[in-house]
Amino acid sequence: MSYNLEVTIDTNSGFCFGVVYAIDMAEEILREEGYLYCLGDIVHNDEEVERLKAQGLRIIDHEHLKDLHGEKVLIRAHGEAPETYRIALKNNITLIDASCPVVLKLQNRIKTSHEEKEPILIFGKHGHAEVIGLQGQTNNEALVFQDLSELDNMDLPKKFTLYSQTTKSTDKFYQIKNELISRGYEVDANDTICRQVSNRDEQLRGFVTNFNKIVFVSGKKSSNGKVLYEVCRKYNPDTYFISGVEELKADMFHPGDKVGICGATSTPLWLMEKVKRTLEEY
Predict the structure, then answer these.
(1) CA 20 to 30 Å from 139, out of 71, 108, 234, 282?
(2) DSSP letter string over 186-235?
(3) Which residues contact 279 (CB under 8 A, 6 or more apart)?
């Protein structure tokens, strides 16, 4: 039986400019030199990481960095803590800095707040690369939380400065701000969420309602992917989350279904196109 699915890729989905910049930079060096070290996964998408590893990208962690000398190392869009730059200087490592400008701006704002002795709260995912870099600007003194409930039994200062990881939900950030104010805190809230990411919320709302089914393509590690998947599911409950074509099954669909494909800011277009080709073969 042929399903004759009508498949459309969301033109607004795919890499944000920060990821494009990092990957372009990596590919240029890989073409010239055949290999390049990268501190952590260049993007939270396993399929894209594997594609670049096949070209010579070598993923290392912070422990490995300490033992490396005289090499080039790429800093990905998520940014890094000051300690990474100190190690690089000490070990004669050339850093290829592809930190996203939006993240760098946020790092500088947090650093200034810390230097001015402001107590700092960061709404972000524990252990996320960007959040580790942000915390590093405060000598790891900032309090990171990913859910309001984490703050319930904490003795917080009456006045503090609130920041957010750049890929968090704008709506949730303002809900948190308002709730903290209603609890009697004086909150200096800094909306530092990337608009290229937050605008996707609205774009996706318009996109997903046009289809019977939505296939949302994202790496499991992508924070932004989790946020945008929830947006899709809210406006179209028939939304499937997949990381690769092997997770697709024909029985997810009905003959003649209109299917929309969308993804995170860390989802490569080539992967969404691969998903489209697979669906069109049903």
Answers:
(1) 71
(2) EEEE-----HHHHHHHHHHHHHHTT-SEEEEE--TT-HHHHHHHHHHHHH
(3) 5, 7, 215, 248, 253, 259, 261
Q: Where are the beta strands (DSSP E) in 5-139?
A: 6-9, 36-39, 57-60, 72-75, 94-97, 120-123
Task: For strands 57-60 and 36-39, give the pairing.
Answer: parallel
pTM: 0.87
* 85 has a pLDDT exceeding 80: yes
Tell me which amino acid residue 123 is: F
Is 130 noted as a catalytic residue in this protein?
yes
Q: How far apart are CA 93 and CA 78, in angstroms?
A: 19
> Residues 263, 267, 273, 277: is their CA dihedral positive or negative?
negative
Looking at residue 94, its amino acid is T
Residues in the chain, total: 282
Cβ atoms of residues 133 and 81 within 8 Å: yes
Q: Is the pLDDT of residue 1 over 80?
A: no
* Element containing residue 159 per DSSP (H, E): strand 159-164
Structure tokens, 212: 């019977």
Do 213 and 257 touch, CB atoms closer than 8 A? yes
Task: Write out pLDDT tens, residues 136-195.
Answer: 999 999 999 999 999 988 889 999 999 999 988 888 999 999 999 999 999 999 998 998
* Residues near 116 by beta carbon (within 8 Å), at least 6 away in sequence: none
DSSP state of 54: T
Catalytic residue among 27, 32, 130, 280: 130
Mean pLDDT of 115-134: 95
